[in-house]
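Progress against Task 2.4 (sequence-to-structure conversion) is shown through the following example record, which the project officer requested during the mid-term review.
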Amino acid sequence: MKLLLSKHRVCGFTFIDLLIVLVTVALALVVLATPRRSTCRHRTSCTSNLKKIGLAFMIWSHDHDDKSPRFVSTNQGGSLEYATSREVFRHLLSISNELVSPRVLVCPSDPGRKPGTEWDKFGNGNLSYFVGVDANETQPSTWLSGDRNITTNRRLMSGMLVLSSNSSVSWTTDIHKRAGNIGLADGSVQQMTDALLLGSIQQSSNLPTRLAIP
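C-alpha cells generated for the chain above:
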C-alpha cells in the first residue's frame, strides 16, 4: 500500500520560532520600561536635592536668629539685597557651607542646566530650582523651593514670578513632563501635577507669593 503524502505543509511554531518570539517580547518590554525607570530615578534624585536645600536653609536660619537668608543682609552672610534680583543663585550661595557641593542644585531631568563644581564659579546656569522669596519656617506650607519649570504662560520663565489665588499656574514639559516638585518651608517635598499645583495655590493662605526663578 502506498502512503499518500499531502502536498500542503502544516504550518506551526517550532521551538526556535517560539524562542525568537519570547526574546523579542522580552526586549520590547525592557525598552518600554527603561524610560519609565529613568524618569522615576530622576524624580527621586530631584526630590532628594530639594530636601537637602530645605535642610540647608533650616540649619542656616537656626544659626542666624531663626531668620532665612532672604531676610538677612549680605553683610551678615544673607541675601536680602538680592531678594528681587535675577541673580537667584545668590540665595543658594548664602547656604553653600550647609550644602557642601553645588552639584545638588541641578535636577537630573533638566538639560538646560549644568552641575556646578566650584562655588566661586556658581551661577544661574548651575541652578534648576526656584527660591520662594517669602517662605518662612513659621509658615510650614509656604513654598521654599521647587523645579524651575513652573509657569503661568506654558513656557519656561525666569525672574520674579508673583502668584495669587487666581494665577493660572502649571508646569512646562521641559523637565518632568508637565509635573514638578515643590520644597516646603518645613523641609518636606511634594510631587505635584498641574492639577495639584493649581489646587495648592488656590487653597493657600500665604498669598501673594514671590518665586525667584533662575
